[in-house]
Write a structure and sequence with these properties.
This protein is mostly helical. It has a domain at about 20-53. It is about 50% helix and about 0% strand. The protein has helices spanning about 5-10, 30-50. The termini are far apart. The mean pLDDT is about 90.
Amino acid sequence: MTPAAETLAYARTAPRGEVKRYDADHFEFYLGEPFDAVVVDQVEFLTRHLLNN
C-alpha cells in the first residue's frame, strides 16, 4: 500500500489529472456497484480528454 497523502500529492501534479474517492476498499472495485461507478467515471474522463483534443 502507498501512503495516501503522498499518492494524492503526486496525483495533483498531473496536468489533466483528477482525484476521485470512493467509499469502497481495494477489492470491492472488481464487482458490483463500486466497479460500475469507477467505469462510468473512467469513460467520462477519457471521453472528455481524448475526444476533445
